[in-house]
Amino acid sequence: MVRGNGKLAHKSKPKPTAKKPEPQNASDYIPRDVPLELQQRCLKIFRETFDPGDQDSALLQEVKGHLFLRDFAAAFGQEQYLRVYASRWSPSRALGYVQVLGDVEEHLMTGRSGDEYEQQPFRIVCLGGGAGAEVVALAGWMHLRSDKMVENVQSEFIDIAAWDSVISDLHRALTTPPELSKYASAIARQTNTAMVAQDQYAANFQQLDALQIGDDKFETLCSNAALVTLMFTLNELYSSSMPKTQQMLSKLKSSMKAGACLLVVDSPGSYSTVSINGTEKKYPMQWLLDYTLIGPQQDSSPKWQKLVSDDSRWFRLPQGLKYPIELENMRYQIHLYRRNSDEQG
After folding, report:
1. Three-state SS sequence of the chain
2. Is 25 inside any structural domain?
3. Rounded to two decimals, what is the model's pTM?
4. Which pick of 7, 197, 263, 277 has the fewest CB atoms within 10 Å?
């Protein structure tokens, strides 16, 4: 009994709490259809830029040897190594990334209008995105969409190795009409266009170590980005330095604007050892992301919302694709987050 007005005090019924939307997972995943013609055109960009073939086998073995020893400084320390890596491993990744972007585009476009993007570019920052897969995938995704919401894309590719010529050569191939034979018909010449127009797709490369970027630089890079990606990069950063990677994610967390998305794609089953409250334990990469971005489960108004989370998906190369050297299917985990507004968080 509670003293007061002389009547029995009754507990008020608790107000129902809004149920948090569940992220998309494997059970409700329906892959976006990517035309075979577009995938073949992406491969043609790589083929015409790097001319891969049997002549690269010795260099490929050298690169594989350095990667096996996890000597990344050696593997990515020479221009010829970078180009042969981009010709061998980036094409299938690029096709996989077109699929990924198509799969999550509904979330990326939420709250945006065509009118807005006729005036403001869609800004994308690709951390660890120097090897060429992302620059081709973004162009493929732009080509895949028929509306105007990604008609003007400005992209930044950040990587510790000197991928500048790889990025610039691929971007030139993407924004330049293919060279035709002198015997090409008038119709072929008339319909010969670049995958994306040069004035609609800007690509800039910066050679930076993501773990060494300062707060002000992160703010400059990411404060106006609609999308930041970490494609097969985060696990390598965790392997390099757990504390610095957590610091980097904290910088991303604070610098990205409301409505912006963070897309993480990586190898399935990635674990890292971290010390929390004095206890060392191995945690899945997904758990570490949630812990850093969303915080404890009891936090009712987190700054970030998880939109998509799947521990294992496959991108399988369709039958009929042609490329001079063998390509591989891509198995991956995917996690997509959106920065909430301050009112929501």
Report:
1. CCCCCCCCCCCCCCCCCCCCCCCECHHHCCCCCCCHHHHHHHHHHHHHHHCCCHHHHHHHHHHHHHHHCCCHHHHCCCHHHHHHHHHHCHHHHHHHHHHHHHHHHHHHHCCCCHHHHHHCCEEEEEECCCCCHHHHHHHHHHHHCCCCCCCCEEEEEEECCCCHHHHHHHHHHHCCCCCCCCCCCHHHHHCCCCCCCHHHEEEEEEECCHHHCCHHHHHHHHCCCCEEEEECCHHHHHHHCHHHHHHHHHHHHHHCCCCCEEEEEECCCCEEEEEECCEEEEEEHHHHHHHHHCCCCCCCCCCEEEEEEEEEEEECCCCCCCCCCCCCCEEEEEEEEEECCCCCC
2. no
3. 0.87
4. 277
Residue 20 lies in a domain: no
Say which residues have a Cβ less than 8 Å from residue 302's Cβ, sequence separation at least 6.
293, 294, 295, 340, 345
Structural domain harbouring 235: 31-178+185-339
Q: How many domains does the chain have?
A: 1
Q: Which value, in Å, is the radius of gyration of the alpha carbons in the chain?
A: 23
The CA-to-CA distance between both ends of the chain, in Å, stands at 38
Gap between the Cα atoms of 35 and 33, Å rounded = 6
Q: Please report, for the domain that includes residue 203, its CATH number.
A: 3.40.50.150
CB atoms within 10 A of CB 328: 14
Give pLDDT tens digits for 2-56: 334 444 344 444 444 445 556 666 657 788 889 999 999 999 999 999 999 888 9
Residue 110 lies in a domain: yes
